Fold Carrier domain-containing protein.
Amino acid sequence: MERTPAYGRRLMPTVLDDLAARSPARVYAAVPKTNDVKDGFRDITVADVARMVNFIAWWVEDRFGKSNKFEAIGYIGIADVRGPILFQGLVKSGFRMLLLSPRNPASTNISLMAQTGCSKLLYASELSPLVDPMRASSLSFHAEAIPLFEDMVASAPKHYPYQKLFEDAKDEPAAVLHSSGSTRLPKPIIMTHGSFAVLDNEHNLPEITGRKRRDWTMWSFEGGGRLFTVFPFFHLGGFLMFTVAAIFGKTTIVYAPPFLVPDGTLIRDIMLQQRLKALLLPPSLIEQLINEPQGMELVKKLDFVAYSGAPLSLAIGNRLSKIIDVFSPYGATETYPQPELGTAPEDWEWHEFSPHCKHEMQLFDPEEETYELVIMSGEDSQDTAAVYHNLPDSRGQFHTKDLFVRNAEKPNLFKYYGRKDDIITLSNGEKFNPIPFELSVQGDSLIKGALVIGNSRSQPALLLEFKSPNQPSLEDLWPLMEKSNTLVPGQGRIHRGMIILGSPDKLFARTGKGTIIRRLTEDAYRSEVEKLYVDMHNSGVYDLQADAQTLSYDRATISKFLRSTLVAGFPAGVSIGEDQDFYAVGLDSIQTTILVSSLKRSLQGHTTASCDWITPRTIFKNPTIKALCELFYEFLNEGTIPKRNDENEDVVPKYLAALTSTSKPTKARGLRTLTTVAVVGSTGFLGSELIASLLMDSSITRIYCLNRSKNAKERTLTQLNSERFTPLLHKLEYLTIELGKPRLGLSEDDHGKLAAELDAIVFNAWRLDFNLTVHSFHPFLHALVEVINLSATSARSPRILFVSSLSSVDSLASTSTVPEALVDDPAAAAPMGYARSKLAAERILAVACRQYGISVLVVRVCQLVGASAGSDGSWLSAVVTTSKTLNLIPSHVAAVDWVRVSDAAKMLHDFLQAPGGEGEALFYHITHPKQQPWDIIVDALQRRLNGASVVPLRKWIGRLREIENPSRQESPAVVMLDFFELLAEGAEKSAYDTQRASGASSVKLTAIDRKFVEAWLGE
């Protein structure tokens, strides 16, 4: 028998036949006997494989004839040994195999078949459901299932001859894989016998004294050895291992049960059954394995661990490198793994490419000091460059588009930096392009830079850099995030809790052109990033399990379950206490709707009872882990569906106790000229107009703007974008406060400065959310008490003006005219937390006024409107926008008693300067004295929305509830459904006394008529 040709001149079919004749007992693969690897493995020898290849070659020829044109035949298979056997059989019978992924959409596989002229498809019968959708395409093809493994093993065919010489066959196509398609439609990459020979030729590369080789020879274990990998046959790594390594090398491939999802436990169990030499795994599975019992001890027995598909975390790599060789072969479908030299253990992340294979590290960006790997692929490199064969159009040199950084101390070492196209690869191998998201976010006027990170992580995160040191809140940013998330696939979307707001003291690293240097920027924020992912991991999804003995659920288990389900709705780094209000730390109404759906899904399988009682209102009325835990404890263990909580508890005594324990009586200060004013909540719709009015008052020399938002100054300057304010801006001073904290979270110096200087405090900070319960407004009530205490203990005893709402007395307004006076009845408020908390605040202030003699003004405000619909964020604007989306107009919502926000601000300014309020709080109503019926809005909207139908409010609400995945931009009323339900039950008209307000202010309110409404709608 003729001897097998030398390395680099061999063909796999002839080598397989030669091995079967010379070393028939050599083990090609080990396959599990059952789905439980503990039942052992069956060794498949090269003689077995050669026989099965002959069988399948005759089987193919019987169906399709013998090809001399290397026609492509597609294959979709499971993770078993039949794939490599079919590949060799197709090659013998003159065909080439098109490897199609069962993970691809049917349309992608059809595209690849069309691109390669493939009209025949073979598949494992287990995957026939994946073939059916492909048959529905316009592409005509023949599809047939391949024989079962048992039939192949039992076969006894005659030899199928393959007598080609390497020089004749080297350019013949044998296999077709495809590019990843991360940024575009996958493209087929045709592989020849010549490209496989490049790997085989690496045996011929000269040895370098004292250096370990890290090329294809490492898969040829001296004396034989076993390798386990989870990379599938259609993946380059899997394909090369299951074919080239198993035939050209001395490697035995160990297979896992084909239908088990690989994890650390499965790999450990395989290692207990099979004496392995090496592993080739994605990083996520390496981490799982070493955390398994016995995992680390089993790894120590290996020759090496190779990882691919994503970066390995630094902590895991450092840990492994101390006990074993760990590295990542560099390569791509077009190039195959590139030959390298082994590095020192501490350099496990670095690559040293073999000097015997022509390549260049071409400087890509001098400032970033990044280099692109360019592979020389000319005629003189055809034995060492697979890309010469795989991409003939790239002969000469192939730009990989992969960037590296050079080791400053060891200049031959390079570390992978990233792709030119910035594709992000998560730890599970999923990829996405973050650029569309980043560009969308960076389009915002407040944001200077946006950087999506996530390589080697389970999900992406976002780093933001702002143009000003004063940052917007996450609440302000979230609509932008939602819009930008629509531009990336699911795995690339940024969740609410995965955003890091950059520090003004830590700017993003940039090139001279202004481009963000990704790696350096991420390195600069390494500690923040690590903390973010640790927090995410610690609050990860918790599996709800009943006690095995009692079959009941304890409160601790339910609490963990709730925390893991709800955590996605909260900002990054937020730790939620058992009694902490969700809405005080960033949860919003849209997110509440999403979380309700998540809770319902999570509870399926744990109860046979209906979960329909779980609605957004359930969360609104029980906005803490502790409160929800009690609800679900009763529901899961007793089947008890909670009754509606009517919130009748009076919270006022609690806050009065806080007053009496900290404040001392003071004397009435009498009216004096205002020179220094503080506005708590100055950046909102009304607050910004009030600041504008106060600035124009020449007697006022200092205005303190107290806000929760850190970017209050920038927002204020944007709102006051007029030359007439520019000379007055020196009057403004900004302080950041924290609701619910002593002294409003201010330093002692800042708090003392306010106490010493203020003549008046306007309290205008309140959350405008009609869904929340009183509980969620406790931080605001607490802050109000802090303001009262500041006034009562200050030598200047500044007067307090509290901006309240007419909803605080709404239940009285439908039956009688509400006086401009205290209503000391908790039931007077509209039945919602917003209104009840406002009334509670009024009552607290009234007591403080009587008890401490401080001057108190309470101003109940109606619906305010801006210059146009949509400019105010009100329920009224929400009705207009949502009506356009639904093409429906509600026939009645509420009486029209609007006041322009600019007029309301001037009235507040007037009230501040009016006498009185000492010893007995003064109440004012800002509402239009001449109400109009809702019909005036309906008529205007009908003219604006051609074809829109007018329907009862309840029907309008019903249609709104039917919207799936509502958008805040298109259907803003969706976050106010409970409020509109209340309006549907309300009266046609409400009556409020305005005599005091009219007497204290010179503002003449604009008449509400058709002209007013059309101007507001923008007609």
The first helix runs from residue 12 to 22. Residues 539-543 have pLDDT under 50 and may be disordered. The two ends are 94 Å apart (CA to CA). The chain has five domains: 12-196, 197-353, 424-538, 555-638, 652-1016.
